[in-house]
Structure to design on (142 residues):
């Protein structure tokens, strides 16, 4: 069987605070959405923009960190895989939802610490330097 790859990398802003809950087995799960933006000029030279919303799900310790540190408007890097699940709505109609199951998280606006979810894959929540201590990008030689 040929190899395949299911990997997503996103940088965006949270649309709302994460919703943290626990399964009946006590496993933490957080869900939230992030927005990514794209901008371009059309044929007439007018600036066009498009926002894409992505549903994110995090499990175990990574979910707890999301619930504790992430807030609406914060900028994050999310790495994970795309997963589609189905469920029946109130009227018994089958619905589908596509989401990104997060393996890794970097908080680009600060806060957090390293994480291991116990799933065999290390998770991280990385802290950026405070704004006053970052190098000015205009001063970089490249």
């Amino acid at each position: 069987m040929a190899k395949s790859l299911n990997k997503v990398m996103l940088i965006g802003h949270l649309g709302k605070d994460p919703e943290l809950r626990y399964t009946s087995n006590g496993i933490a799960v957080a869900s939230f959405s992030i927005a990514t933006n794209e901008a371009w000029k059309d044929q007439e030279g007018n600036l066009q923009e498009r926002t894409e919303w992505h549903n994110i799900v995090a499990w175990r310790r990574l979910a707890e960190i999301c619930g504790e540190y992430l807030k609406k408007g914060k900028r994050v890097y999310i790495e994970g895989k795309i997963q589609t699940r189905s469920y029946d709505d109130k009227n018994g109609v089958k619905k589908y939802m596509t989401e990104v199951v997060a393996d890794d998280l970097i908080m680009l606006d600060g806060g957090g610490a390293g994480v291991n979810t116990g799933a065999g894959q290390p998770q991280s929540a990385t802290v950026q330097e405070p704004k006053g201590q970052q190098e000015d990008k205009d001063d970089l030689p490249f």
